[in-house]
Amino acid sequence: MILFSPLTPIEDVLRNVLDWLHGTAGLPWAWSIVALTVMVRLLLVPLTVRQIHSMQNLQRHAPQMKEIQKKYKADKKKQQEELMKFYRENQINPAASCLPLVAQFPVFIALYFVLREFSKHPPGGDLSWLGHHFVPDITAHANAHWSGFLLLAIYVISQLVSTMLMSSTMDKSQRIMLMVLPVVFVTFLLNFPVGLVIYWVTTNLWTVGQGLITRRLMPKPAVPEKRSSRTPPKETEAEPVADELAEPVPAPAVASQPRRVKRKKKARR
Predict the structure, then answer these.
(1) Which of 59, 131, 142, 182 could cross-link with 159 by S-S, CB 3.0 to 4.6 Å?
(2) Whole-angstrom Cα distance, residue 120 to residue 42?
(3) What is the dihedral of CA 198, 200, 114, 142, to 10 degrees?
(4) Domain ranges of the chain
(5) pLDDT range class, residue 228, cuts 50, 70, 90
(6) Alpha-carbon distance 41 to 60, whole Å?
(7) Is the pLDDT of residue 3 over 60?
């Protein structure tokens, strides 16, 4: 209990919000979790904006970063040093893309304890979701009913899609690790309450929709033009300026015809 004591205020807030959504707004407990998830994601919008800006910055500098990785491919330590130097010079924060996920983790753990308390002391109202034939009890473990396995499959698919949308600028090894992580995490979610899986599936679907909107609105980074030895050099902007500043060459003088002089006739005597 001492380990999780810092989460007690978050647990109290989540429990009060769920009570309000169920008691005042009239939502079932499962749909209250969905509404709670939407509220949490709305509160994380400032961090999401920073995440999007970080992704845009990474995409703009992706060609230079790939050049550094290629240049120091044999020396990983030097590669990391040069990348960190490049991040500082261009004011890039790679960790900004993980801020929404890190901020949600305490909420995830706190909601786990709230649902565990629900299972010990069931609150009044229906604890099913989409009818008793689909999810009979959101406080039961995910492996207790076939619907739990279906929700876990939706979780894995949504997590993979959100990773593909939000990790386009990551290294290949990091991206593979994020792809494998949801499959490994399923083994832990099997013993978690179904309501917690509903929370994570909802936040993943939010992330997928956010990624699709971001891809549509985010401008694609400019791809540098591929040049070969046969590609003619481009004219620089300094050339016309040099022509304007150059001294004008005087035009050749046109040979003028000799002037005819009229002689006066002498008077005859």
Answers:
(1) 182
(2) 30
(3) 50
(4) 5-217
(5) very low
(6) 27
(7) no
